[in-house]
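Hi R.,

Here's the chain you asked about this morning:
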Amino acid sequence: MRDLELSTPRTPAQAVLRIVSILMGGMGALVLVGGLIVLIPSVIGGSDFWAAVTFGVMILVVAGLLILTAALGIAASNNSARVGPYRFLCYLVGLGVLVAIAWGWGVGTFILFDPVVLTTTIVYVLICSRLADKVKEEHDNGVRGETFLRSRHQRALHLLSEVIILKGVLTIVVVGVLGAALVVYGEGERALISGIPVTVSGTLYALLVVGGLSAGLAVLVGCLGIRGSNRPEKIVPFLVLASIALAFDVVQVAGMFVERGIQGVTFDLMLDLLFMGSCVYLAVRVLRQPSPEELMAEAVGAAMVSAEE
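And here is the predicted structure, written out as C-alpha coordinates:
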Protein backbone atom coordinates (compact mmCIF):
# COMPACT_ATOMS: atom_id res chain seq x y z
CA MET A 1 0.00 0.00 0.00
CA ARG A 2 1.21 3.50 -0.79
CA ASP A 3 1.75 6.03 2.00
CA LEU A 4 -1.24 8.27 1.27
CA GLU A 5 -2.45 11.20 3.36
CA LEU A 6 -5.10 13.87 2.92
CA SER A 7 -3.80 17.42 2.86
CA THR A 8 -5.07 20.19 5.13
CA PRO A 9 -7.70 22.19 3.21
CA ARG A 10 -6.29 25.66 2.54
CA THR A 11 -7.39 28.50 0.29
CA PRO A 12 -4.69 30.28 -1.74
CA ALA A 13 -4.61 33.04 0.89
CA GLN A 14 -4.07 30.49 3.65
CA ALA A 15 -1.34 28.78 1.62
CA VAL A 16 0.49 32.10 1.20
CA LEU A 17 -0.04 32.87 4.89
CA ARG A 18 1.54 29.54 5.81
CA ILE A 19 4.64 30.26 3.72
CA VAL A 20 5.00 33.80 5.11
CA SER A 21 4.58 32.49 8.66
CA ILE A 22 7.23 29.80 8.21
CA LEU A 23 9.58 32.46 6.84
CA MET A 24 8.95 34.73 9.83
CA GLY A 25 9.46 31.85 12.24
CA GLY A 26 12.81 31.10 10.63
CA MET A 27 13.79 34.76 10.83
CA GLY A 28 12.81 34.84 14.50
CA ALA A 29 14.98 31.81 15.24
CA LEU A 30 17.91 33.37 13.37
CA VAL A 31 17.52 36.65 15.26
CA LEU A 32 17.47 34.77 18.56
CA VAL A 33 20.48 32.59 17.79
CA GLY A 34 22.48 35.41 16.18
CA GLY A 35 21.75 37.74 19.07
CA LEU A 36 22.83 35.18 21.62
CA ILE A 37 26.07 34.54 19.70
CA VAL A 38 26.85 38.26 19.95
CA LEU A 39 25.52 38.72 23.49
CA ILE A 40 27.17 35.82 25.33
CA PRO A 41 30.79 36.79 24.50
CA SER A 42 29.99 40.38 25.52
CA VAL A 43 28.76 39.27 28.95
CA ILE A 44 31.64 36.83 29.48
CA GLY A 45 34.16 39.42 28.31
CA GLY A 46 33.08 41.83 31.04
CA SER A 47 31.57 44.55 28.86
CA ASP A 48 28.94 47.00 30.12
CA PHE A 49 26.39 44.86 31.96
CA TRP A 50 23.38 47.14 31.43
CA ALA A 51 24.18 47.61 27.76
CA ALA A 52 24.28 43.82 27.40
CA VAL A 53 20.96 43.48 29.27
CA THR A 54 19.33 46.14 27.08
CA PHE A 55 20.60 44.45 23.94
CA GLY A 56 19.42 41.07 25.22
CA VAL A 57 15.93 42.36 25.94
CA MET A 58 15.70 43.86 22.45
CA ILE A 59 16.72 40.52 20.94
CA LEU A 60 14.12 38.64 22.96
CA VAL A 61 11.37 41.13 22.04
CA VAL A 62 12.11 41.06 18.31
CA ALA A 63 12.60 37.28 18.15
CA GLY A 64 9.55 36.68 20.34
CA LEU A 65 7.41 38.93 18.15
CA LEU A 66 8.48 37.13 14.97
CA ILE A 67 7.99 33.67 16.47
CA LEU A 68 4.59 34.63 17.95
CA THR A 69 3.49 36.03 14.59
CA ALA A 70 4.63 32.83 12.89
CA ALA A 71 2.79 30.60 15.38
CA LEU A 72 -0.47 32.55 15.09
CA GLY A 73 -0.13 32.68 11.30
CA ILE A 74 0.39 28.92 10.97
CA ALA A 75 -2.63 28.33 13.21
CA ALA A 76 -4.73 30.60 10.99
CA SER A 77 -3.42 28.90 7.83
CA ASN A 78 -4.62 25.54 9.19
CA ASN A 79 -7.96 26.85 10.49
CA SER A 80 -9.36 30.15 9.25
CA ALA A 81 -11.55 30.43 12.37
CA ARG A 82 -8.37 31.18 14.34
CA VAL A 83 -7.30 34.19 12.29
CA GLY A 84 -8.55 36.72 14.88
CA PRO A 85 -5.46 36.81 17.17
CA TYR A 86 -3.12 36.93 14.17
CA ARG A 87 -5.05 39.81 12.63
CA PHE A 88 -5.07 41.73 15.93
CA LEU A 89 -1.29 41.32 16.31
CA CYS A 90 -0.61 42.52 12.76
CA TYR A 91 -2.71 45.67 13.25
CA LEU A 92 -1.09 46.25 16.65
CA VAL A 93 2.41 46.12 15.16
CA GLY A 94 1.28 48.31 12.26
CA LEU A 95 -0.03 50.87 14.75
CA GLY A 96 3.28 50.75 16.61
CA VAL A 97 5.18 51.43 13.37
CA LEU A 98 2.88 54.38 12.60
CA VAL A 99 3.49 55.83 16.08
CA ALA A 100 7.26 55.38 15.65
CA ILE A 101 7.20 57.16 12.27
CA ALA A 102 5.10 60.00 13.71
CA TRP A 103 7.45 60.30 16.69
CA GLY A 104 10.47 60.43 14.38
CA TRP A 105 8.80 63.12 12.29
CA GLY A 106 8.08 65.10 15.46
CA VAL A 107 11.74 65.13 16.51
CA GLY A 108 12.88 66.04 13.01
CA THR A 109 13.90 62.58 11.76
CA PHE A 110 12.16 60.76 8.91
CA ILE A 111 12.72 57.09 9.79
CA LEU A 112 10.48 55.42 7.19
CA PHE A 113 13.50 54.52 5.04
CA ASP A 114 15.39 53.02 7.96
CA PRO A 115 15.90 49.33 6.96
CA VAL A 116 14.30 48.00 10.16
CA VAL A 117 11.29 50.31 10.01
CA LEU A 118 10.85 49.82 6.28
CA THR A 119 11.05 46.02 6.57
CA THR A 120 8.55 45.99 9.44
CA THR A 121 6.18 48.22 7.47
CA ILE A 122 6.34 46.04 4.37
CA VAL A 123 5.96 42.76 6.26
CA TYR A 124 3.28 43.63 8.81
CA VAL A 125 1.30 46.41 7.11
CA LEU A 126 1.47 45.47 3.43
CA ILE A 127 1.70 41.66 3.66
CA CYS A 128 0.55 40.17 6.96
CA SER A 129 -2.40 42.52 7.58
CA ARG A 130 -3.73 42.04 4.05
CA LEU A 131 -3.40 38.27 4.31
CA ALA A 132 -5.23 38.33 7.64
CA ASP A 133 -8.05 40.41 6.14
CA LYS A 134 -8.32 38.05 3.16
CA VAL A 135 -8.43 34.91 5.33
CA LYS A 136 -11.07 36.49 7.58
CA GLU A 137 -13.13 37.52 4.55
CA GLU A 138 -12.98 33.98 3.15
CA HIS A 139 -13.94 32.54 6.54
CA ASP A 140 -16.91 34.90 6.86
CA ASN A 141 -18.07 33.93 3.36
CA GLY A 142 -17.70 30.20 4.06
CA VAL A 143 -14.89 29.70 1.52
CA ARG A 144 -12.86 26.52 2.09
CA GLY A 145 -9.77 25.20 0.36
CA GLU A 146 -9.44 21.96 -1.56
CA THR A 147 -8.23 18.69 -0.02
CA PHE A 148 -5.72 16.58 -1.95
CA LEU A 149 -4.69 12.96 -1.54
CA ARG A 150 -0.88 12.98 -1.61
CA SER A 151 1.69 10.23 -1.77
CA ARG A 152 4.97 10.55 0.12
CA HIS A 153 6.68 11.83 -3.02
CA GLN A 154 4.03 14.51 -3.45
CA ARG A 155 4.39 15.58 0.17
CA ALA A 156 8.18 15.77 -0.12
CA LEU A 157 7.92 17.77 -3.35
CA HIS A 158 5.38 20.09 -1.71
CA LEU A 159 7.86 20.77 1.12
CA LEU A 160 10.77 21.45 -1.23
CA SER A 161 8.57 23.75 -3.33
CA GLU A 162 7.72 25.73 -0.20
CA VAL A 163 11.45 26.07 0.48
CA ILE A 164 11.97 27.44 -3.05
CA ILE A 165 9.20 29.99 -2.49
CA LEU A 166 10.62 30.97 0.90
CA LYS A 167 14.05 31.62 -0.60
CA GLY A 168 12.51 33.68 -3.39
CA VAL A 169 10.29 35.73 -1.09
CA LEU A 170 13.15 36.42 1.31
CA THR A 171 15.33 37.61 -1.57
CA ILE A 172 12.54 39.85 -2.88
CA VAL A 173 12.09 41.43 0.57
CA VAL A 174 15.84 42.06 0.90
CA VAL A 175 16.07 43.51 -2.61
CA GLY A 176 13.00 45.69 -2.00
CA VAL A 177 14.33 47.03 1.29
CA LEU A 178 17.77 47.74 -0.17
CA GLY A 179 16.27 49.43 -3.21
CA ALA A 180 14.00 51.63 -1.10
CA ALA A 181 16.86 52.51 1.26
CA LEU A 182 19.11 53.52 -1.68
CA VAL A 183 16.51 55.74 -3.34
CA VAL A 184 17.41 58.69 -1.10
CA TYR A 185 21.04 58.57 -2.28
CA GLY A 186 22.34 60.05 -5.50
CA GLU A 187 24.62 58.49 -8.10
CA GLY A 188 28.13 57.93 -6.72
CA GLU A 189 27.23 58.65 -3.10
CA ARG A 190 28.29 56.35 -0.27
CA ALA A 191 25.48 54.66 1.63
CA LEU A 192 25.64 52.78 4.92
CA ILE A 193 23.24 49.81 4.86
CA SER A 194 23.12 47.81 8.11
CA GLY A 195 26.68 48.89 8.86
CA ILE A 196 28.01 47.96 5.39
CA PRO A 197 29.26 50.86 3.21
CA VAL A 198 28.23 50.68 -0.46
CA THR A 199 28.61 53.04 -3.40
CA VAL A 200 25.36 53.85 -5.19
CA SER A 201 25.73 53.23 -8.92
CA GLY A 202 23.85 51.99 -11.93
CA THR A 203 25.62 48.65 -11.62
CA LEU A 204 24.30 48.24 -8.07
CA TYR A 205 20.74 48.95 -9.18
CA ALA A 206 21.16 46.52 -12.08
CA LEU A 207 22.29 43.81 -9.66
CA LEU A 208 19.24 44.50 -7.49
CA VAL A 209 16.95 44.22 -10.53
CA VAL A 210 18.55 40.95 -11.62
CA GLY A 211 18.29 39.60 -8.08
CA GLY A 212 14.64 40.59 -7.90
CA LEU A 213 13.83 38.98 -11.25
CA SER A 214 15.66 35.78 -10.29
CA ALA A 215 13.77 35.66 -7.00
CA GLY A 216 10.48 36.21 -8.80
CA LEU A 217 11.30 33.31 -11.13
CA ALA A 218 12.10 31.15 -8.09
CA VAL A 219 8.71 31.97 -6.59
CA LEU A 220 7.03 31.02 -9.88
CA VAL A 221 8.90 27.70 -9.97
CA GLY A 222 7.93 27.01 -6.37
CA CYS A 223 4.27 27.73 -7.12
CA LEU A 224 4.41 25.35 -10.08
CA GLY A 225 5.92 22.73 -7.79
CA ILE A 226 3.11 23.11 -5.28
CA ARG A 227 0.54 22.90 -8.05
CA GLY A 228 2.20 19.77 -9.40
CA SER A 229 2.41 18.20 -5.94
CA ASN A 230 -1.32 18.72 -5.51
CA ARG A 231 -2.25 17.78 -9.09
CA PRO A 232 0.26 15.29 -10.55
CA GLU A 233 -1.14 15.74 -14.04
CA LYS A 234 0.21 19.33 -13.95
CA ILE A 235 3.75 18.48 -12.83
CA VAL A 236 5.39 18.83 -16.27
CA PRO A 237 6.03 22.64 -16.21
CA PHE A 238 7.81 22.33 -12.88
CA LEU A 239 9.78 19.32 -14.10
CA VAL A 240 10.97 21.23 -17.16
CA LEU A 241 12.10 24.32 -15.21
CA ALA A 242 13.69 22.25 -12.44
CA SER A 243 15.58 20.20 -15.05
CA ILE A 244 16.90 23.39 -16.67
CA ALA A 245 18.05 24.69 -13.27
CA LEU A 246 19.69 21.33 -12.52
CA ALA A 247 21.50 21.33 -15.88
CA PHE A 248 22.74 24.86 -15.21
CA ASP A 249 24.07 23.79 -11.79
CA VAL A 250 25.81 20.77 -13.34
CA VAL A 251 27.52 23.01 -15.90
CA GLN A 252 28.66 25.39 -13.13
CA VAL A 253 30.02 22.56 -10.99
CA ALA A 254 31.82 21.00 -13.96
CA GLY A 255 33.35 24.35 -14.91
CA MET A 256 34.58 25.02 -11.37
CA PHE A 257 35.97 21.49 -11.09
CA VAL A 258 37.89 21.74 -14.37
CA GLU A 259 39.22 25.19 -13.51
CA ARG A 260 40.10 24.80 -9.81
CA GLY A 261 39.69 21.15 -8.87
CA ILE A 262 37.38 19.68 -6.25
CA GLN A 263 38.32 22.35 -3.71
CA GLY A 264 37.15 25.06 -6.07
CA VAL A 265 33.55 23.84 -6.04
CA THR A 266 31.68 25.95 -3.49
CA PHE A 267 29.51 24.37 -0.80
CA ASP A 268 26.43 26.46 -1.62
CA LEU A 269 26.58 25.38 -5.27
CA MET A 270 26.84 21.70 -4.29
CA LEU A 271 23.92 22.17 -1.90
CA ASP A 272 21.87 23.78 -4.66
CA LEU A 273 22.82 20.93 -7.02
CA LEU A 274 21.64 18.35 -4.48
CA PHE A 275 18.47 20.31 -3.83
CA MET A 276 17.51 20.68 -7.49
CA GLY A 277 18.43 17.04 -8.15
CA SER A 278 16.00 16.02 -5.40
CA CYS A 279 13.30 18.21 -6.94
CA VAL A 280 13.76 16.63 -10.37
CA TYR A 281 13.76 13.11 -8.91
CA LEU A 282 10.56 13.74 -6.95
CA ALA A 283 8.88 15.36 -9.95
CA VAL A 284 9.69 12.30 -12.09
CA ARG A 285 8.29 9.98 -9.42
CA VAL A 286 5.12 12.04 -9.17
CA LEU A 287 4.78 12.06 -12.96
CA ARG A 288 5.06 8.26 -13.12
CA GLN A 289 2.78 7.43 -10.20
CA PRO A 290 -0.86 6.39 -10.75
CA SER A 291 -3.53 9.02 -11.29
CA PRO A 292 -5.36 10.56 -8.29
CA GLU A 293 -8.40 8.42 -9.09
CA GLU A 294 -6.28 5.27 -9.02
CA LEU A 295 -4.64 6.35 -5.77
CA MET A 296 -8.05 6.96 -4.22
CA ALA A 297 -9.29 3.55 -5.34
CA GLU A 298 -6.13 2.00 -3.91
CA ALA A 299 -6.64 3.78 -0.58
CA VAL A 300 -10.33 2.75 -0.40
CA GLY A 301 -9.43 -0.86 -1.21
CA ALA A 302 -6.74 -0.93 1.48
CA ALA A 303 -9.18 0.53 4.00
CA MET A 304 -11.78 -2.14 3.18
CA VAL A 305 -9.19 -4.90 3.61
CA SER A 306 -8.14 -3.48 6.97
CA ALA A 307 -11.77 -3.30 8.09
CA GLU A 308 -12.38 -6.92 7.14
CA GLU A 309 -9.33 -8.05 9.09
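One quick note: The first strand starts at residue 5 and ends at 6.

Cheers,
M.
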